């Protein structure tokens, strides 16, 4: 796994980028942060946050001209968050906050500030904090610049004097009634290491670099045209701060321009979607200034800007409490340091690999690809326990074995222009629909329609068993070549996706597109305007042709379609994807339930597993073939879902029936203990289903025990305890023999090998 490439993908995640209110603030006040504290009623902490970026907070907090408000994402019909009024509330209710400051040792460098206006005193304030000795020269008899021109009702002169006193207490020397002429400036050049000129009269005389504030005179920095005539308080603060940075770099002979593109206001790259947010009207203070309660209520209107589109859409990311950036760090740590642990394995194996995160992400970070690559890496390093995906891989092995695999030309033909590949799950759930669909294709399509029963290799792909998946695809490719490379017609969305990705020279078509093009079979009952919500399989996320064909079929059958909240390219997973159904069944159910809540209407699915999982959670769901071939629609929508054992049996029966009825061939394959009679209670049946134990596994354990007497007998209750290890899983069965049948009392399995003495 290319970990450097993986880590570079973190940079694509924009979620931790600052919100517009922060980037559009010339001094980048943490607006989101201090509003968050107000929401909690913590005005003193809000004050501390505000003071980190805002000098003279008790003054500027009252008179800031808040350019941030105009670009607030909630600024719809004038309902932007009252950021400035909240700043004022913080200065009033939080000013008693204790702010810890670390003493900075003085350095042997002196700076002169010409002009005691807002930019000048800001520059002095910042440089003093860096340890410089700072003198302010002001031609008037007091400093404060445009602060002094504000009406007393807006800004009490007492507050200005308090801030001036603080500057003096910090060691800044203020020299009043000192007009500095160009000639006098020359006299001062030997005394000071640099100058900042904040005087409007001087600024017009200099050609000022608007990035660094440096003039053509090396030691002199000025606000230049940016400040000249500027009425923005907060912009003046930024100008003084920018000059302080330049002076500090100049003194220490560092680059004046490096890494300064985001000084001052700039455009945020954070994307915030508030289409589902209800923006309430702006709260107006009754007495001109917010009360604490009014401030808290106004702060609660803030949507606390973040992207997190992937997290909001994906129940897995919500569950693990990770966004892509944090998830990638977790994977990197797992790969480099921990080298595989239980927590990381469970997290990584709980992703459905559905790709929804990538579909909604503004920068297209697809965790499905990252997770799959991680699983492949874990398998290659023997850090993925075989038991994790054992059942699914063995089911794939069964499906591609003599018990199900079938490759035939159309009866009576030696060539196939097409081949029908129904997939393993449709064959397991709706074998009768597979037969009807195949007969339909043979009737509608010329040139011969072959049949190929098997599994596309999806379990191996999801499990990270790349070699096994590649081997499966190569086998399919070889078999298709033997059929003459026909057009493959798939009924399974996952097969369609995998073939399209891995069989580049093979033409692929969906069964649903054929129904849409060739017409619906006679006998399909109309829906009479019934409303359905289409659940698109996540593996068809980018297959618009399939999505539209499903809707066209439903509409032709007189069904109304109402799309769920997440649909088509933004569809959600049913809970089966990525083999989560086997690795974390409890979470799989949560994913299923999360999808169900997206619509109150009955679902229409075209993936057998999607339909089955929804029905298991009580959601009425039709498969598209129910609409085409089913009768008694209300009963079909919540028809019993086959168990795992039923699914195996259904595939086997399907092959047997097709061979017998279409090709006149008898299937003689038979399981050794298939005729053995076992009896379950429903509770135990549910238990073994949940624990992925097949009835066939139980029969083989009992059959082996009865044949070899390799078992334990309990004389107190007459129960027999038997075990048998199949490859890497040991199955245990407690049973009682009653006449010619076996009552199953308990069954369980684990990775253990029991050896006799």
From TrEMBL:
One of its GO terms (cellular component) is plasma membrane. InterPro entries: 4Fe4S_Fe-S-bd, 4Fe4S_Fe_S_CS, Cys_rich_dom, DPD_II, FAD/NAD-bd_sf, HdrC_iron-sulfur_subunit, Helical_ferredxn. It comes from the Bacteria. The keyword Iron applies. Residues 292-325, 340-370 form the 4Fe-4S ferredoxin-type domain. Gene3D superfamilies: Alpha-helical ferredoxin, FAD/NAD(P)-binding domain. GO terms for molecular function: 4 iron, 4 sulfur cluster binding; metal ion binding; oxidoreductase activity. Keywords: 4Fe-4S, Iron, Iron-sulfur, Metal-binding, Oxidoreductase. Pfam families: CCG, Fer4_17, Fer4_20, NAD_binding_8. This is Pyridine nucleotide-disulfide oxidoreductase. Coiled coil: none annotated.
């Amino acid at each position: 796994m290319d970990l450097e490439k993986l880590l570079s993908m973190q940079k694509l995640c924009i979620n931790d980028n600052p919100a517009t209110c922060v980037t559009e603030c010339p001094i980048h006040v943490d607006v989101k942060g201090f509003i968050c504290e107000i929401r909690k009623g913590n005005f003193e902490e809000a004050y501390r946050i505000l003071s980190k970026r805002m000098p003279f907070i008790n003054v500027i907090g009252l008179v800031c001209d808040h350019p941030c408000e105009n670009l607030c994402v909630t600024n719809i019909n004038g309902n932007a968050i009252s950021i400035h009024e909240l700043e004022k509330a913080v200065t009033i209710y939080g000013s008693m906050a204790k702010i810890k400051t670390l003493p900075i040792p003085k350095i042997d460098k002196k700076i002169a500030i010409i002009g005691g206006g807002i930019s000048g005193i800001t520059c002095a304030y910042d440089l003093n904090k860096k340890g410089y000795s700072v003198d302010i020269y002001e031609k008037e008899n007091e400093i404060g610049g445009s602060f002094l021109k504000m009406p007393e009702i807006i800004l009490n002169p007492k507050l200005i004097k308090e801030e001036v006193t603080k500057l003096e207490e910090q060691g800044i020397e203020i020299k009043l009634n000192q007009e500095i002429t160009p000639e006098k400036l020359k006299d001062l050049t030997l005394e000071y290491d640099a100058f900042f000129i904040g005087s409007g009269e001087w600024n017009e005389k200099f050609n000022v670099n608007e990035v660094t504030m440096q003039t053509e005179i090396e030691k002199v920095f000025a606000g230049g045209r940016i400040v000249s005539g500027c009425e923005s308080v907060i912009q003046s603060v930024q100008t003084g701060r920018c000059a302080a940075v330049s002076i500090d770099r100049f003194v220490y002979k560092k680059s004046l321009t490096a890494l300064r593109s985001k000084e001052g206001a700039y455009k945020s790259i954070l994307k915030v979607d508030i289409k589902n947010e209800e923006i309430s009207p702006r709260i107006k203070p009754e007495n001109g200034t917010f009360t604490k309660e009014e401030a808290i209520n106004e702060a609660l209107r803030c949507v606390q800007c973040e992207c997190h589109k992937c997290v909001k859409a994906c129940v897995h990311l919500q569950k693990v409490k990770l966004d892509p950036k944090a998830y990638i760090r977790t994977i990197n740590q797992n790969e480099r340091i921990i080298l595989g642990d239980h927590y990381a394995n469970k997290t990584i194996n709980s992703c459905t690999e559905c790709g929804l995160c990538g579909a909604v992400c503004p920068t297209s970070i697809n965790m499905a690809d990252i997770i799959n690559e991680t699983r492949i890496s874990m398998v290659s390093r023997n850090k993925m326990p075989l038991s994790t995906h054992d059942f699914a891989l063995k089911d794939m092995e069964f499906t591609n074995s003599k018990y199900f695999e079938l490759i035939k030309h159309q009866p009576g033909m030696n060539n196939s222009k097409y081949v029908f590949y129904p997939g393993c799950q449709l064959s397991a759930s709706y074998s009768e629909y597979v037969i009807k669909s195949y007969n339909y294709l043979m009737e509608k399509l010329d040139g011969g329609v072959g049949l190929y029963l098997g599994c596309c290799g999806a379990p191996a792909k999801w499990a990270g068993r790349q070699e096994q998946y590649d081997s499966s695809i190569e086998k399919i490719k070889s078999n298709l070549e033997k059929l003459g490379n026909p057009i493959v017609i798939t009924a399974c969305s996952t097969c369609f996706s995998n073939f399209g990705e891995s069989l580049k020279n093979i033409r692929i078509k969906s069964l649903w597109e054929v129904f849409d093009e060739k017409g619906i079979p006679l006998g399909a009952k109309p829906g009479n305007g019934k409303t359905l919500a289409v659940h698109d399989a996540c593996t068809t996320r980018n297959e618009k042709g399939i999505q539209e064909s499903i809707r066209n079929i439903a509409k032709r059958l007189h069904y109304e379609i109402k799309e769920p909240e997440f649909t088509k390219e933004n569809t959600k997973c049913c809970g089966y994807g990525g083999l989560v159904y086997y690795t974390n069944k409890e979470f799989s159910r949560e994913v299923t339930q999360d999808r169900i809540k997206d619509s109150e209407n009955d679902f229409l699915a075209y993936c057998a597993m999607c339909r089955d999982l929804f029905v298991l959670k009580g959601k009425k769901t039709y498969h598209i073939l129910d609409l085409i071939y089913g009768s008694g629609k209300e009963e079909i929508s919540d028809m019993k879902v086959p168990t795992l054992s039923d699914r195996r049996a259904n595939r086997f029966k399907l092959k047997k029936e097709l061979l017998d009825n279409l090709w006149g061939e008898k299937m003689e394959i038979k399981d050794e203990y298939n005729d053995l009679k076992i009896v379950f209670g429903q509770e135990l049946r549910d238990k073994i289903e949940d624990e992925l134990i097949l009835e066939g596994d139980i029969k083989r354990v009992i059959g082996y025990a009865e044949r070899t007497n390799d078992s334990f007998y309990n004389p107190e209750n007459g129960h027999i305890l038997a075990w048998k290890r199949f490859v890497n899983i040991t199955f245990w069965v407690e049973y009682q023999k009653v006449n010619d049948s076996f009552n199953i009392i308990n069954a369980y399995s684990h990775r253990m090998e029991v050896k006799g003495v």
